[in-house]
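User: Here's a structure from my thesis project, written as structure tokens. My advisor, Dr. K., wants to see whether a designed sequence matches the one we expressed. Can you design one independently, without my sequence as a hint?
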């Protein structure tokens, strides 16, 4: 029996020795690509569940700007739920409303201007796929995202969305004048061209860097915006012997900052009040309590005060009133649009971005080549950045 046990032990030691002598299983280092869409998908896979939509939107826009519409379509479809779904309070939203959870635990759907831009880009993708009716439906949904602004004059006031709604309506052989009238009202002194239903080349233009969210208030409970920036005042397109100048239609910082208060702001204000009161109670109880427990006659009172102060401090430190500042940070500052009628075939075009004085900004000039096909619209997205 002892011999058998010794044999077993010897065999085990041999196996362990042979295993130790084997070369380790080395996993190759991941290969990184200079393709921003591929790397963006890697970031989406690694992101926490509540942040995945944010990364889908960021990478989807990169794909659209790099003329990868199939990737852009898949990412925007995954990131943009049905219009009514984002208004429903799911489990993560209810958690964000609790005293001890930050707002950013909820799944990212963005503020109204970000939701509007998501639907806007989805509309462009449908238009690129020769589905103008679906594109128009997306533009209308995008406008609805802004329909609940606090002040009446800022409700559903995107110029571009109404203009493109009416433009597609006109191209479909119906009356788009109502949407054009609304767009011109929102545009103020900016002159918008009449529709040309025969136009077959639609150039969507965007410039600058959009707004960025930051926290304000006494304890970070307020959501405020750092304004975006663009020094472009108009855009000139030269192609096939034509020159068209497009004005600026929409300003995203204006859209972000004119929304007014949010439903979540009331929740955050309540959290902020609880935190500040608890901190005050904690300060008022802790210091006197520590002093009083040094004396035998006041020790009991000191312990009671210290207990109240520590509870206040604990609650104050546990409350999470900070506003969600996650931002779709590669959105533009300005949107613009131009429509042209071009012959079928390949066309090189030059896009010049001009400042407020009308001078070219040479470092922004873009050269694009595209093909116009018979029986369908060509839709381009051109950005100065």
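Assistant: Designed independently from the structure alone:
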């Amino acid at each position: 029996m002892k011999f058998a046990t010794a044999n077993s032990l010897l065999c085990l030691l041999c196996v362990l020795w042979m295993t130790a002598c084997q070369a380790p299983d080395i996993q190759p280092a991941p290969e990184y690509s200079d393709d921003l869409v591929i790397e963006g998908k890697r970031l989406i896979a690694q992101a926490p569940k509540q942040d995945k939509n944010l990364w889908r939107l960021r990478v989807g826009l990169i794909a659209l700007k790099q003329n990868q519409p199939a990737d852009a379509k898949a990412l925007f479809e995954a990131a943009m739920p049905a219009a009514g779904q984002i208004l429903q309070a799911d489990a993560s939203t209810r958690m964000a409303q609790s005293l001890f959870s930050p707002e950013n635990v909820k799944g990212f759907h963005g503020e109204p201007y970000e939701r509007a831009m998501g639907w806007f880009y989805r509309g462009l993708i449908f238009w690129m796929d020769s589905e103008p009716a679906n594109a128009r439906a997306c533009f209308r949904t995008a406008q609805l995202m802004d329909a609940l602004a606090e002040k009446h004059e800022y409700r559903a006031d995107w110029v571009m969305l109404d203009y493109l709604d009416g433009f597609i309506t006109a191209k479909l052989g119906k009356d788009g004048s109502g949407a054009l009238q609304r767009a011109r009202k929102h545009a103020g002194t900016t002159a918008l061209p009449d529709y040309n239903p025969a136009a077959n080349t639609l150039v969507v233009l965007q410039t600058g860097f959009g707004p960025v969210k930051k926290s304000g208030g006494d304890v970070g409970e307020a959501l405020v915006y750092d304004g975006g920036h663009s020094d472009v005042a108009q855009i000139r397109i030269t192609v096939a012997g034509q020159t068209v100048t497009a004005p600026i239609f929409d300003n995203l910082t204006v859209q972000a900052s004119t929304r007014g208060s949010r439903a979540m702001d009331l929740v955050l204000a309540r959290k902020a009040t609880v935190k500040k009161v608890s901190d005050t109670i904690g300060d008022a109880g802790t210091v006197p309590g520590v002093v009083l427990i040094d004396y035998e006659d006041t020790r009991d009172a000191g312990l009671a005060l210290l207990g109240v102060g520590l509870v206040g401090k604990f609650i104050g430190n546990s409350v999470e009133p900070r506003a969600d500042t996650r931002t779709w940070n590669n959105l533009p500052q300005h949107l613009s649009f131009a429509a042209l009628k071009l012959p079928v075939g390949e066309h090189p075009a030059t896009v010049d971005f001009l400042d407020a004085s009308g001078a070219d900004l040479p470092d922004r000039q873009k050269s694009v080549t595209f093909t116009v096909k018979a029986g369908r619209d060509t839709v381009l997205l051109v950005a100065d950045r």
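When you compare it with your expressed construct, this may help: Residues 198-385 form one domain.
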